[in-house]
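Ticket reopened. Same input as before:
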Amino acid sequence: MASLRLPDSIPSPAQDSERLSLALQGRGVDEKVIVWILGHRNAIQRKQIKDTYQQLYKESIIHRLESKLSGVLKTAMILWMNEAPERDAILANKALKKKGKKINQLQVLVEIACASSPDHLMAVKQAYCSLYECSLEEDITSNISTSLQKLLVGLVSSYRHDRELVDFNLAKSEAAKLHEAIEKKQLDHDDVVWILTTRNFFQLRATFVCYKQSYEVAIDQTINSSGNGDLGSILRGVILCIVSPEKHFAEVIKASTVRYWTKDEDSLVRAIVTRAEIDMTKIKGEYFKMNNTSLDDVVTRDTSGVYKSFLMALIGAKI
Amino acid sequence: MASILGKWHSEHLESFRKRTPKFFVEDERLFERWDDHHIACLTKEFLQFKDIVVQWIMHPWERDARLVHEAITKGPQAYGLLIEIACTRSSEELLGARKAYQSLFDQSIEDVASRLEGIERKLLVALVSSYRYEGSRVNEGTARSEATTLAIAVKNVDKKNPIEDDGIVRILTTRSKLHLKAVVKYYKEIYGKNIDEDLDTLMSLKETLQCLCNPQAYFSKVLNDAFKDDADENTKDALTRVIVTRSNVDMKEIIEEFDKQYKVPLTQKIEDVALGNYKDFLVSLIRRVA
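Engineering reply: fixed in the latest deploy. New output:
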């Protein structure tokens, strides 16, 4: 469930554009107004504001925001104002081009492929081609080590079926195939890749349940205890995003903050901005279960300024 | 036909039968019996006409999805058709076919492809999953080095079949068509010969590259094979398929290529092998672009 709160009566896109234009005029910038408006509009409303602003002022509001805002508020707001496919294409590109990237920075690719709908993944790929003049698969090939390429390219290529169709016999036999591959430390075996990248999500959830039933241990724990390095880490991310994206994002948020400061701003922003209109309410539930603290309290404690107000608005916190 | 034949009474029909010895023979039990061969010809012609009409009107996504399904059902002998569709359609058209396949058959193509038999499986899954960049940017340095990668794989064919090489499959299934044309060009520059000469024993790879880089040559050959006297039913079906699926795409270039390769106009070959309404439909589809 989305956490974003909308006001009872929404001004017209023209009224919003006018107030935003005033806030972005002159030498300073009224960040509070920008956050107050944009932090309380859903995707359709933000698009209308973008289009109206362009018509009225002959300028892209995103460009204006880029030139007037700074720091982490700018990062968050630009992501928020882009439509979801472009936003995720930008996030994927940023993760792929980052020098000295750690494995958890590739999580965004797994999230796009496994924690959203197949149609969204295809839209991200289309956006990626338009923005970066090459396909997402090609940039994965150029920027990721060979051992991870097969799985990551497979994950982003596949257009999975979106119906709840499960073949329980297949689930059982594929649980066995996966088990064998993990035991033999053959995590990049073709069968593993094809099973995880081409089956529909419902089928895979059934496969993971069969796995637990047959081997009395969850599949991600088997991967963990086999000590399978970077590839194992990605695979566990895949499994968690398929089974429970809320838990995955709750973990991402937890890993991004330390008492009184945020050690990984990018991950915190990504988790909140990309899920505010999808399942942030569930993520907050999982977060509380994990940490016995509410996300609202943690964001209050570990972030500051107008940026904090923006994040609070997105997670539907009571200010 | 309906307006003429439908008006005939039994005397007209009898008279027609008696006056057309080509179609009707005098049976020993004293009735004009329809010659079996001609029934077969008529059946075939009506069937071909029905096929071409249905395929022509059908949405291209549904058409491709049904062709893919047919190929998967037929097995390894029809894998060439999977390669054809995956490689000669635009990225959006291929995605459309994948959407239609899900609506029609309740599975994704890649899911089904991952369970096919044979060493082509890796290549086929990756081909049907591809969404290639279609702009003009090409990294010449990468194209050049990938030409070398291909050459090395071809040279080592006895040690490992390139079709099972992850790196080779990735090049063929993720690079843009323009990029692959550059790879082919560099191959010729560096090694002095066309890559398809070196891929003669690796048919799937050869067809893949040809479909991606020179679809007109590929379709000309498919058409020519369909015209041969000893062609089987599948090969002959290609005539309808190619004309219908390429009519709005690159039929003009295919006609020119066919003329160049086989020194005879495509329309003439069609006149030679096709009959009746089926033939007329084929010719009109070609004439609209020529």
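Chain A touches chain B at residues 122, 125-126, 129, 133-135, 137-138, 141-142, 146, 149-150, 153-154, 157-163, 165, 190, 194-195, 197-200 (CB under 8 Å). The first strand of chain A starts at residue 257 and ends at 258. Please confirm and we'll close it.
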